[in-house]
Each structure stands twice: as structure tokens, then as C-alpha cells.
TrEMBL record:
PANTHER family: EMBRYONIC ABUNDANT PROTEIN-LIKE, OS01G0589200 PROTEIN
SUPFAM superfamilies assigned: S-adenosyl-L-methionine-dependent methyltransferases (SSF53335)
Organism this protein belongs to: Brassica rapa subsp. trilocularis
Highest taxon listed in the record's lineage: Eukaryota
Record region (Disordered): 262-310
Regions of compositional bias (Basic and acidic residues) in chain numbering: 262-274, 282-298
Record-linked InterPro entries: Methyltransf_11, SAM-dependent_MTases_sf
Domain annotation Methyltransferase type: ranges: 39-133
Name recorded for this polypeptide: Methyltransferase type 11 domain-containing protein
Length: 310
């Protein structure tokens, strides 16, 4: 996150939602064991704190040391800095070793990662028997019929300034590769839609807008999207400035497990089924689009920008 004043940073935190506690419960019910969880891209540790209710030990990592210094402390959460140049082997060892994690969570974070590295590490540390990986993103806020259309125009105006990272998030993870097997809670290309309820003050909302990454990107290019006129419009649409509103964020989640090893005969039969499917519309829809070499290169280049990271 680009540097914010203490006041703006507090307002920004006020606007950021807490993930519903039943999310952790529902996911934890589906993992076989509850010894170790890894919260990757932990930020201030809010998901780690949710996970520690269900797992004996939580390892929480982040590329940004400054974020970790502000993270919420807990005796069963160990926070670790994972710098950009850390090797996959070092990362696997730091997190807990091969086949060790019952659950991996990346909350509002995976779109920042070098996906090849992350998925390589995830596949190594995730338990083959009963381990799960869950990723989620929120990308839209529903406040009131007066405010939502103004927000929509603002969101639309960010289009020319969005980075590929932002596009993955704006796209609700529908175009994000997710090479894990579905357990019925979303799948690659088809995340599940969830709501995150939140109480929001006008001050928190304005603070959020001022530090909102798409608007910051526009500002870097000399375009002020969140100007005083727009803020006045939002203030008028809000009504009583002291009113704290019940709002919700639209979130999107995918949970998966390590794909099961298939025998050669399974593969042959699956391939012939796939050929049959390809001859139908359903089959065409189910064919996964693989990223081109160019896209892979771009995705590597775009990732892990600490400035952009929160
Ligand atoms: C939007 S914040 C989300 C923080 C937290 N998970 C939450 O939900 O509140 C994204 C976090 O991902 C971290 N991050 C970005 N790239 C990373 C990487 N390659 N490895 C680990 N963490 C990364 C950022 O530093 C930041 O703390």
C-alpha cells in the first residue's frame, strides 16, 4: 500500500471487512485433520486469527515485512517474512515441510502472487490426504440505492488504469488458474459467490476511496478519479454523516484439494470421454483455456509488487 497518513490508514482499516467466522468453520469441517494451517499473504493476520480457532498451529507469511510488524499476535500463530528471492525449497522448509498442511488460505491475496511458484509450493506442502486450499477475493461493495450507482461509475472509470493484478480481482477470479480438484465449493473458472456483511461509516468509506488502488494508479498517471466533487456527491448520497450503514462486500471463493493420482487406464478412459464432450457445447464450455506463454510471462512480471500489495 502506498504510504497513508495515520488517519487515512485507520479509516482504510475501518472500511476493510472481517471475513465471516462461519467461512473458517465450514472449510475446517472439510479438512481431515486440524494440526497445521498456512495463511499466505497474511497482511495484518486477520485470516490467521480466524484459522487459529480451528487449527492447532497457524503459519502466516507475507512478502512485506512492514505488514507483519502490524499483524495481530497470537501464541499459536507464527509469522514469517518470505522475501521475493526465497527459493521454493526454502519456502517449503519454512512453512513446515512436504505434505504437512491441513489447510492453505490466501485471503484477498493470490492475485498478487507469482502463481507458478505459489502453486508449486502449495502442492508440496499441502497434505495429499485430506488437505485443502482455499482462496477468496472481494471486489465490490453494496451500500445503498443512492450510493451504488455513483460507485459503479467510479469503478467503470478505473478501467483504463487497471493492472493485470487488479483485473484478476475485478474478474472475481473467474480467469485465475486454480490447478486443484473441486470439492464442491467453487472450481477453476467458477468461484462461489458469497457476501461479507460489514458496518461502514462515511469516514471509513471516504478513507477507503482515497487509498483505493485503482484510483491510486490513475493518480500516478495524473488523473484524479476521487476528487472533491465526487466526495461531495458521496457525502450527499450518504445522508446523515454520523450514520453507520450495514453494507456488504461481494466475495468469490474457490476451495480445492490435490488432484487424485489417476491410473493409466483411468486416463485413457477420461481422454476418450473428453473427446466425446468436445463434440458438444457442454464440452466446449468445459475445456479450460490454458494461458499462453506471453500471458505466463506477463503474469510473472506483474506479480509481487509490494507497493501495490494491499
Ligand atoms: C490485500 S492484502 C490481504 C491481506 C490479508 N490476507 C487480508 O485478507 O486481510 C494482500 C497481502 O498479500 C501480500 N503479498 C503480496 N505478494 C505476496 C507474495 N508473493 N508472497 C506473500 N505475500 C504477498 C501483501 O504484502 C499483502 O499483505
Amino acid at each position: 500500500m502506498a504510504a497513508l497518513s495515520e488517519k487515512d490508514a485507520a479509516a482504510y482499516l475501518d472500511a476493510r471487512p472481517r471475513y465471516p467466522i462461519d467461512w473458517y468453520k465450514k472449510i475446517a469441517e472439510r479438512t481431515q485433520d486440524h494440526k497445521f494451517a498456512w495463511d499466505v499473504g497474511t497482511g495484518n493476520g486477520q485470516a490467521a486469527i480466524g484459522l487459529v480457532e480451528h487449527y492447532e498451529n497457524v503459519v502466516a507469511t507475507d512478502i512485506n515485512e512492514a505488514q507483519l510488524k502490524r499483524a495481530i499476535k497470537h501464541s499459536r500463530i507464527s509469522y514469517h517474512h518470505t522475501p521475493k528471492n526465497m527459493s521454493e525449497d526454502e519456502m517449503v522448509a519454512l512453512i513446515g515441510g512436504e505434505n504437512s498442511m491441513d489447510l492453505i488460505v490466501a485471503a484477498q491475496a493470490v492475485h498478487f502472487f507469482d502463481l507458478t511458484t505459489f502453486y508449486n509450493v502449495a502442492k508440496r506442502v499441502l497434505r495429499k490426504d485430506g488437505g485443502l486450499i482455499a482462496i477468496w477475493v472481494y471486489n465490490d461493495i453494496i451500500i445503498s440505492p443512492e450510493i451504488d450507482p455513483i460507485m459503479k461509475s467510479l469503478v467503470d472509470s478505473t478501467l483504463p488504469f487497471r493492472t493485470p493484478i487488479m483485473n484478476l480481482a475485478f474478474d472475481s477470479y473467474k480467469t485465475l488458474p486454480f490447478p486443484f480438484e473441486s470439492i464442491g465449493m467453487g472450481s477453476e473458472g467458477e468461484p462461489v459467490r458469497l457476501d461479507i456483511p460489514h458496518k461502514l461509516s462515511l469516514k471509513g468509506f471516504i478513507g477507503f476511496l482515497k487509498s483505493w488502488q485503482p484510483a491510486m494508479k490513475a493518480k500516478e498517471q495524473g488523473v484524479e478519479l476521487v476528487d472533491e466533487d465526487l466526495i461531495t456527491k458521496f457525502e450527499e448520497a450518504w445522508g446523515d454523516e454520523n450514520q453507520v450503514k450495514d453494507v456488504y462486500y461481494k466475495a468469490h471463493m474457490i476451495v480445492g484439494k490435490i488432484p487424485e493420482m489417476r491410473s493409466e487406464s483411468d486416463k485413457v478412459s477420461e481422454d476418450s470421454n473428453k473427446d466425446n464432450l468436445l463434440q458438444t457445447d457442454v464440452g466446449r464450455k468445459q475445456e479450460r483455456r490454458q494461458p499462453s506463454d506471453d500471458e505466463n510471462r506477463q503474469s510473472k512480471k506483474q506479480n509481487t509488487s509490494e507497493d501495490e500489495a494491499c
